[in-house]
């Protein structure tokens, strides 16, 4: 029977599990995000570098193809911690722009259109709503960061063999953990700016400015006060320090990975605080 | 349906609800309760507290037996909420929007899609269901909000000013839908409105709030029944024996001169008895009306603008 002839009857069938319902939001959000051409384009472009890295791994494991090249170059193309750190820098850059592009369209429209009361009048708490939005960003950024990273790692293991894996397995876990930390920070920044500024374009600008301004301020502190801890407020720099430790690469001069981890934790807590203050179903005028 | 026990809600230092206690909608399924009150009476604060958006500073509130604070999730899974203001996601079609809301309430994706189409036809948005919500008129947005509130078949629907901004035809349609929701679907409805006629038309109970307190709680059906016994009669002819004859049918009456009478009928006596009695007295009826307290009179009395209803004065 045609739907318009059926009339409305109350639903009385089985319900989905209450713990998985928050995943409805990411499912709808991903569908909408990948309908945006710019997001799709940037995601595709972000795969170029992993493809090049894949070619690099292939070459480094096929020395017979490099016979015409000198010894120095052969030593340069090693798949080690430095190789993965370079891979991570490039992909992390793409992730910043992707988060700035996609993040603001997640929360800002809900706040601008007063949609939060509709979501939160259902069996969904503020925290599960925030978790759902975080899942959207982390999931989306994972596609261009640790997933291709682990594929490259798997490719290298496949080509170099079990002995390379036994000697370098920490690179895989380090890369995964390093990316997860970066994605969490990026997602929290995007969500906080989106929750704070209801206008989508401004929220995207704020999201990008957060990294550039803090980087600039960190460098200014460093130069003006002639100290070596100025970069501690620069999230990109602090994450890099942690990555260096995770990948076994020498850290930069300044506060170490421990101090950087503390600085990032404080930053993350502040961002969570902003989200907590702004994500409310009703604005209470006290 | 809703139980409030000494419910106190503070926003900052301001106390908005002052220890409200009452039980609403205890008379069974498919009932509608109207929440009335002037601006600032605390109606919206009460609704937001029931939804768990605001925390009570003292007392407790429960919906369908679930504490609004401790078992908020269980309560919310059984209710639908239609907010007063524009609440939607502009770049979504009505189908996507309502389906997403249905899935969030726990419907499996296929069932959610089916119910979405059904409900959108039911509220009259069938032909416009694939249009983006931002292109909808105010009346259509109201209907889309109603659709998302009932798509999952909740036990209780909370409607905040459902007829706001609607033209007369759309208003009639909205009230008809609310009546169908309770009569045919067995949903309980809590309607918050400042339009007394809307409440009178669709509700079985009414709660009147003022300054954060409940000043009147009445069963509208009982009010209608009790007030039906007030009759205004105007006759031509010799009515000098009418007063003595009224006790024969168990009624009492007060002559007001020039053939005008105010009569109080006891429970169970219908107006037909007056017609018969007047006929036996050879009187011609020029006018006979059931004088009853309207909700407006009840409201004005609750607000302190009237000391008593005209019906009460006639009875006394």
Index terms:
heterodimer, A: 286 residues, mainly alpha, B: 316 residues, alpha/beta, Rossmann fold, Alpha-Beta Plaits, 2 domains, six-stranded mixed beta sheet, disordered C terminus
Structure description:
The complex is a heterodimer of chains A (286) and B (316). Chain A has 286 residues and is an all-alpha fold. Chain A has a domain at 19-205. Chain A contains 14 helices and no strands. Chain A has helices spanning 3-6, 24-33, 37-45, 48-60, 71-76, 81-102, 104-112, 116-120, 126-142, 146-160, 162-196, 200-224, 235-247, 257-278. The longest helix of chain A has 35 residues, at 162-196. Chain B is α/β, with parallel strands linked by helices. Chain B folds into two domains: 2-219, P-loop containing nucleotide triphosphate hydrolases (Rossmann fold, 3-Layer(aba) Sandwich), CATH 3.40.50.300; 229-290, Alpha-Beta Plaits (2-Layer Sandwich). In chain B, 35% of the residues lie in helices and 27% in strands. Chain B has a six-stranded mixed sheet, sandwiched between helices. In chain B, strands 2-1-4-5 form a four-stranded antiparallel sheet. In chain B, strands 12-13-11-14 form a four-stranded antiparallel sheet. In chain B, helix 6 links the parallel strand 7 (156-160) and strand 8. In chain B, helix 3 crosses helix 4 (109-122) and helix 4 (109-122) packs across helix 5 (138-150). Chain B is elongated. Chain B starts with a strand and ends with a helix. In chain B, 43% of the residues are buried.
């Amino acid at each position: 029977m045609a739907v318009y002839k059926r009339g409305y009857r109350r639903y009385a069938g089985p319900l989905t599990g209450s713990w998985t319902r928050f995943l409805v939001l990411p499912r709808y959000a991903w569908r909408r995000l990948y309908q945006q051409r710019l997001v799709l384009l940037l995601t595709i472009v972000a795969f170029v570098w992993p493809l090049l890295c894949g070619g690099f791994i292939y070459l480094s494991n096929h020395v017979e193809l490099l016979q015409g090249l000198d010894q120095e170059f052969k030593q340069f193309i090693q798949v080690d911690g430095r190789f993965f750190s370079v891979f991570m820098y490039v992909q992390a850059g793409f992730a910043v722009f992707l988060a700035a592009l996609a993040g603001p369209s997640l929360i800002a429209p809900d706040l601008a259109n007063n949609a939060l009361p509709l979501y939160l009048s259902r069996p969904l708490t503020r925290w599960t709503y925030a978790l759902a939005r975080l899942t959207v960003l982390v999931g989306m950024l994972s596609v261009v960061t640790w997933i291709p990273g682990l594929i490259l790692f798997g490719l290298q293991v496949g080509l170099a063999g079990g002995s390379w894996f036994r000697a370098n397995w920490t690179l895989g876990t380090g890369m995964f953990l390093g990316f997860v930390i970066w994605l969490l920070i990026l997602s929290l920044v995007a969500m906080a700016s989106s929750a704070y500024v209801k206008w989508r374009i401004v929220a995207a600008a704020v999201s990008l400015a957060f990294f550039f301004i803090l980087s600039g301020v960190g460098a200014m502190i460093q130069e003006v006060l002639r100290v070596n801890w100025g970069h501690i407020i620069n999230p990109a720099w602090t994450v890099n320090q942690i990555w260096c430790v995770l990948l076994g690469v020498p850290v930069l001069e300044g506060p170490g990975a421990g101090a950087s981890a503390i600085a990032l934790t404080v930053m993350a807590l502040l961002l969570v605080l902003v989200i907590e203050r702004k994500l409310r179903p009703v604005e209470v005028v006290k | 349906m809703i139980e409030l026990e000494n419910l106190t809600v503070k926003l900052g230092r301001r106390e908005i609800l002052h220890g409200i206690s009452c039980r609403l909608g205890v008379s069974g399924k498919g009932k509608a309760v109207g929440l009335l009150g002037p601006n600032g009476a605390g109606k919206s604060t009460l609704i937001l507290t029931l939804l768990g958006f605001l925390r009570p500073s003292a007392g407790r509130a429960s919906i369908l037996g679930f504490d609004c604070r401790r078992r908020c999730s269980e309560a919310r899974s059984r209710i639908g909420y239609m907010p007063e203001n524009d609440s939607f996601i502009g770049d979504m079609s009505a189908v996507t929007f309502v389906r997403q809301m249905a899935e969030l309430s726990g419907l499996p994706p296929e069932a959610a899609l089916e119910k979405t189409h059904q409900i959108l036809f039911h509220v009259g948005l069938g032909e416009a269901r694939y249009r983006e919500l931002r292109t909808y008129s105010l009346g259509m947005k109201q209907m889309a909000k109603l659709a998302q509130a009932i798509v999952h078949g909740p036990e209780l629907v909370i409607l905040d000013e459902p007829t706001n901004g609607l033209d007369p035809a759309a208003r009639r349609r909205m009230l008809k839908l609310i009546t169908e929701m309770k009569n045919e679907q067995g949903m309980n409805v809590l309607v918050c409105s400042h339009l007394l006629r809307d409440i009178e038309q669709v509700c079985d109970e009414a709660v009147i709030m003022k300054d954060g307190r409940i000043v009147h709680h009445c069963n509208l059906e009982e009010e209608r029944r009790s007030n039906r016994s007030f009759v205004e009669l105007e006759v031509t002819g010799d009515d000098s024996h009418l007063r003595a004859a009224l006790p024969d049918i168990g009624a009492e009456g007060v002559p007001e001169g020039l053939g005008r009478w105010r009569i109080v009928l006891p429970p169970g006596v219908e107006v037909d008895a007056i017609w018969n009695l007047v006929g036996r007295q050879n009187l011609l009826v020029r006018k006979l009306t059931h004088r009853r307290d309207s909700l407006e009179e009840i409201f004005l009395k609750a607000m302190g603008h009237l000391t008593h209803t005209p019906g009460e004065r006639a009875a006394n």
